[in-house]
Specification:
mainly beta, 5-stranded antiparallel beta sheet, globular
């Protein structure tokens, strides 16, 4: 939007850096939504990926990553799943915040994304009706 391009991959310099990206246009929240789950995809050297509510200045949740100690790669990425969920609101602003630490001597490829899953009351009603 507004002539800005989003890239799925970019190159990070050596050392620690934080990247922030507004996600309101992707969320397109028209009413309050309850976030039930998130699947996280990042590349090695990522340390944490968070959804931040910029309006309330609160972190919605953070996924932490564990990088291998003796080679390049990830040994664990925390996912998010909750039956009660977390509410996101149409009148709030949200962003993704990615913290990285390139521990090599050269620039590295990076990616950080979240696939978000929200409660859908309309779909829930259809599924309950099909059960009966």
């Amino acid at each position: 939007g507004k002539g800005n391009r989003l890239s799925g991959h970019w190159v990070i310099p050596v050392g620690k850096k934080t990247y922030r990206s507004d996600i309101n246009s992707q969320l397109q929240i028209k009413d309050s939504l309850r976030l039930q789950a998130a699947a996280i995809h990042v590349h090695p050297f990522a340390n944490a990926l968070s959804i931040v509510d910029k309006t309330s200045k609160k972190v919605i949740f953070t996924s932490h990553m564990t990088n291998h100690k003796d080679k390049i790669g990830l040994s664990n990425i925390e996912q998010y799943c909750s039956e009660t969920g977390i509410w996101l609101y149409a009148n709030h602003e949200y962003e993704l915040v990615l913290e990285v630490n390139n521990t090599t001597a050269i620039p590295q490829d990076m990616m950080g994304s979240m696939f978000l899953f929200f409660y859908d009351a309309e779909l829930d009603a259809i599924l309950k009706k099909q059960k009966n």
